[in-house]
Amino acid sequence: MNVSHETIYRTLFVQARGALKKELTAFLREHPRMRHPKTHPGQAPRYYIKNAVSISERPAEAEDRAVPGHWEGDLLFGTFDCQVATLVERRSRYLMLVKVPAKDTQSVVGALTRYVKKLPDGMMRTLTWDRGGEMADHAKFTIATDVEVFFCDPRSPWQRGSNENTNRLLRQYLPKGKDFSTLTQAQFNRIADELNGRPRETLGFANPAEVLWQTVATTS
Question: What residues make up the domain containing 104?
Answer without folding.
Answer: 55-219
